[in-house]
Amino acid sequence: MSQNAATYADCVASLRSSLNFLESSVTTLDAGVSDLPRLSTVLRPTRHFELIPQPTLAAAEASLRDEIGPQIALLLDRVEAQIARRERRIETLQARCELLQGRLAQPEGDGEYGGGAGKKGKSKGLGRGAGSKRPLGGESALRARAVRQRREGLEYSVERLELEVLTKERELRKRLDKA
């Protein structure tokens, strides 16, 4: 039992020294923290302005302009090219939209919607008139249908190419106007 008492005495002594150490740490910390409001005003950044001669300022501006000027010009050229590309894309999509709207507005039997479609309407009318006089047999009907579909596809391609030519002409006129 005396051995347990000695062990407890050592533990109590160690605990007291730890408490003393902790108390001194708290006092030191308290002293350091109490000075923080004053330190915040002391350490507040202050800005100093120096006057430099005009030639030095002009040289620095010229150096900066020479350094970033070519990069800015390059970026502006890229932006202009991208804008032109987007404008051409918009024109192409608008032309395609007009073409498709025209094709949707034109009923199957009626070929007269204006523009270059009058030719298409007349050819359809002739083909339908000939087809309505005598009915075609199985294989002939399939051939006639394939020929009609091919003709419609070719007419669409021609219209698309005509619109492309118009778009290219507009672009060329714009470029010539700018030059």
Automatic annotation (TrEMBL):
Span of the signal peptide: none
Major site of localization recorded for this protein: nucleus
Region (Disordered): 108-150
InterPro entries: DASH_Spc19
Keyword Transport: no
GO cellular component term of the entry, any: DASH complex
Location in or out of the cell: Chromosome, Centromere, Kinetochore; Cytoplasm, Cytoskeleton, Spindle; Nucleus
Swiss-Prot/TrEMBL GO biological process terms: attachment of spindle microtubules to kinetochore
Coiled-coil ranges per UniProt: 76-103
A Pfam match: DASH_Spc19
Keywords assigned: Centromere, Chromosome, Coiled coil, Cytoplasm, Cytoskeleton, Kinetochore, Nucleus
Family the UniProt entry places it in: Belongs to the DASH complex SPC19 family.
Name the record gives this protein: DASH complex subunit SPC19
Native organism: Colletotrichum sublineola (Sorghum anthracnose fungus)
